[in-house]
Amino acid sequence: MASFSAQPVVAVLGPTNTGKTHLAIERMCGHSSGMIGFPLRLLAREVYDRVVAIKGKERVALITGEEKLVPPNAQYFLTTAESMPISPGLLAGGDKQGDRDYAFVALDEAQLGADPERGHVFTDRLLRARGREETMILGSEALRPMIRALVPDAEIIGRPRFSTLTYAGATKLSRLPPRSAIVAFSAEEVYAVAEMLRRLRGGAAVVMGALSPRTRNAQVAMFQAGEVDYLVATDAIGMGLNMDVAHVAFASLRKFDGRRARRLTISEMAQIAGRAGRHQRDGTFGTLALEGGSSARFEDEEVDAIEAHHFPPIDHLYWREGAPSLASVDALIADLERRPDRPVLRAAPQAIDLSVLKRLAEEDWVRERARGKPMIARLWAACGLPDFRKTGPEPHSRLVSRIFRHLSEGSGHLPKNWFADELARLDSVQGDVETLADRIAGVRTWAYIAHRADWLADADHWAERTRALEEKLSDALHQRLTQRFVDRRTSVLMRDLGAKGGDLALPVKVDDEGIVTVDGEAIGRLIGFRFKPDHLARHGDMKRLMAAAERRLGSELASRARQLAADEDGHFSLATDAGRPVAIFWRGDVVARLEKGRTLLTPRIRLHRALDPLSPADHAGVEQRLAAWLEGRIQRELKPLARYFEAARDPACPPSLRALLAPLAEAGGITARAGIASAIEHLDREGRSRAERLDVKLGTIDVYSPTLLKPEPTRWRIALFAAAEGQLMPELPVPGAVSMATPADTAACEAMVRAGYRALGAQMLRVDLVERLARIAHDSRSGRAPFTPDPGLATSLGLRHASFAQLMLALGFRAASPAKGEIAAESWVWKGKREPRKERPARPGNAFGALAELYPGMPSRNAAR
User: At 178, which CATH number?
Assistant: First the structure.
């Protein structure tokens, strides 16, 4: 066993959150050179970045199994415990740093010497790593007896915790306070908890020892920046990783230590719970209450010990010879299996490097090649390759065997093509979290190999290649972790809902396309005044999205209200989609609906509920602008109808004319003549002339306004009827259609009648065409003698025989009986008593020609045939 150095040693012992690591950094930076060994690559990298900020990159080195940044003039070394260069030849490949001495040396988390798997490494460093001027051992207070026994001359300094750590009991996942870390002890459990937090609280950052420093730093950065309020981690966070955690919740109090599942020791519980609180800010710890009320529970004595920082002292450390003999393979194995000669030390359980060595020693070719100290050192270095992928001794030994075979033949270098092919197999960012994590573990294996200076012909090149590939995969893994376990929108919403009285003013923006972002996260789109949540949001987030929009969009809605009140008429429109309520649109979206008013032409405007958050003044401004636009459009599109209403209420208008106009106005400008026949009979010549000037057409069957039969006035009239009757908008006739099939639905048929169509059995014909046909028919007859209408009339209007017959009957004709022996002819006889009033002289030509002359767009007779 190595002898102890006579150099002074200081042991700084105490619970977590005592600033021990910070003290070591300060002390090291006060010396001309120094080295600190850490339990985790992640922690070494974190401290490396801190020391670089103090001393500059050219003076600081980082050495881990998979990463080596050693500037030529490096004076300060941050390493993992396994990679501490404390004696010549200790580093695989005979790294020259092993010949260096350091003014200051420190070992962090030295109590890990009691760990069965890695304890022998920490014990060896505790015994042999010494600084030229100062040595510092950092660890738990439970390590005090071991320091007294193994380094009796060491000065022990106790460091009290800066803040109070309090037990908070069991807490449901949905009730965890912000800035909480949940600790689990398997990747599966970490993922399950993170997935639940995503659904409940917007997600969590994930930290595990298997993550690369780049991925871990990116995840922690999310947590530190407040993008997520929760962190799910393995017990890796207990090893000094500095994070702003207020509460630590244990998902379990049991872990698998590589051999068996066991309950955490009190020291392990305290190490993890101690992450809560920072400097002088108090922290809490507890357990995670699972569904059904069951959860891991701390015993009372465990809680008392953790709160008081009183832990059972460590009564032994694991040891293995740190500088074994390289005289032969058997001597090497014998030294590694030798038992310690001190009562407080125990032989370390067989680690995977020794297990692989013993397997290879059984191979004749290995013993044949492993002759002489240099080759035995190379064999032992190859066996030291960590099993990053956790494949187990047998598969891992096969990889080591192949590596040693190459190292022990030819140039002593690994084949470039083999190394390149292995990296190429891992060079893919496709796959899920587990797949990417496994690839990163594979890359760590080859990165470890690339940093053995004499294993590759161009080690620096391959070290850079593996570094770049690990960063590439790490970025992809961070992205996958974020996609899988972080719903940033929900996280933002939870913070928004947690704001009381507007204390948390999350920035809200609305871009030119109406996309609404809260703190940079898109939550939906503002269409007009309506907020539409993101369609990709989960159902449970919808209420939160709406609530966030209501609180944060007030100023934007007010701005839009003022814009509407000052906008031009061209940006408003009447929405008359069939099957939907009649509405007013502004810039392409609904702002109000029409309801029954005092008259057909004065409907009530009801603003859409999306405008409810507006102030009373803005609300009134919108209503006034919409009312002004609606009144103007009604006067423009329905001018004759407006004049009917006005004249019907005008005392100066003759009563006989008012008797005609009042029902005509209520009917929307079109009504059957039979219903107002009495009023028509009482009209004198002046009344008829005045009615004609008001655009009233006294037809044979219907009374109507020709202007109101145009498509746009028709649309407005039907819309106003639907609003007045509280109905949805019916189908409108095809613009320009003169005939159509009679709708089977009563309401639809009524809408067509209001649009200006008269039912003729199975078909309907527009009333102005009915009147034209009536005139042509009367012009074609001679008194009461039978006559045959031109058959082109019906064909040109699309009327079938039955519908045309219905029209002729409605006009006052009857079918003539055919002469004896003749085939039935389509002849008609006038049977009315009163001759139709001639409005204009008959036009020359046949009836079809007269009709075509009245309607220039009508097809020719030949075309009709």
Answer: 3.40.50.300
Give the range among 136-150, 262-276, 831-845 with minimum mean pLDDT: 831-845
Q: Phi, psi (5° rounding) for residue 256? A: -95, 120
Is 68 contained in some domain?
Answer: yes
Contact 506, 552 (CB under 8 A): yes
Look up residue 115 and give its DSSP letter: -
The amino acid sitting at 202 is G
Whether residue 349 sits in one domain with residue 295: no
pLDDT in tens, 102-127: 999 999 999 999 998 899 999 999 99
pLDDT digits (tens, 9 = 90+) for 787-825: 777 777 777 888 888 888 888 888 888 887 765 544 445
Do 207 and 133 have their domain in common? no
Task: Please list, residue by residue across 551-587, b when 16 or more beta carbons sit within 10 angstroms of its beta carbon and e when fewer do.
Answer: bbbeebbeebbeebbeeeeeebebbbeeeebbbbebe
Q: Does residue 698 sit within a domain?
A: no
Chain-centroid distance, C-alpha 256: 35
pLDDT of 88: 40
Mean pLDDT of 625-650: 94
Domain end residue (candidates: 429, 452, 483): 483
Per-residue pLDDT, 149: 94
In-domain check, residue 553? yes
Give percent of the chain above pLDDT 70.
Answer: 86
pLDDT digits (tens, 9 = 90+) for 491-546: 555 555 444 444 344 566 788 777 877 666 677 788 888 888 776 655 555 566 66
Binning pLDDT at 50, 70 and 90, where does residue 833 land?
low
418 pLDDT more than 90: yes
Looking at residue 160, what is its pLDDT?
81
- Within 10 angstroms of residue 747's Cβ, the number of other Cβ atoms is 12
DSSP type of residue 12 = E
Pairing of strands 283-289, 165-172: parallel
What residues have CB less than 8 Å from 257, skipping those under 6 apart? 116, 117
| Mean local confidence (pLDDT), 181-189 | 88
Q: Give 826's contacts (C-beta < 8 A, 6+ positions apart).
A: 788, 789, 791
On whether both 517 and 415 belong to a single domain, the answer is no
Per-residue H/E/C for 506-573: CCEEECCCCEEEECCEEEEEEECCEEEECCCCCHHHHHHHHHHHHHHCHHHHHHHHHHHHCCCHHHEE
Cβ(436)–Cβ(483) under 8 Å? Answer: no
Q: How far is CA 234 from CA 112, 182, 188, in A?
A: 17, 8, 11
Q: Which tokens is 383 given?
A: 């066996």
Work out the pLDDT band at 182, boundaries 50, 70, 90. Answer: very high
- Same domain assignment for residues 12 and 131: yes
Same domain, 388 and 509: no
Of 156, 188, 213, which residue sits at a domain end? 156
Total domain count, the chain: 5
Instruction: Report d(CA 45, CA 43) in Å as an integer.
Output: 5
Percent of the chain surpassing pLDDT 90: 51
Q: Are residues 168 and 145 in the same domain?
A: no
Burial of 591 (0-12, 13-18, 19+ CB in 10 A): buried
Which range marks the domain in which residue 527 is found?
504-564
- Write the DSSP symbol of residue 479: H
Residue 64 lies in a domain: yes
Euclidean distance between CA atoms 20 and 248, whole angstroms: 20
In this structure, which amino acid lies at residue 831? K
381 contacts: CB under 8 Å, gap ≥ 6:
92, 93, 452
End-to-end CA distance of the chain: 119
Pairing state between β 515-518 and 508-510? antiparallel
422 shares a domain with 476: yes
| Cβ-based neighbour number of residue 746 at 10 Å | 8
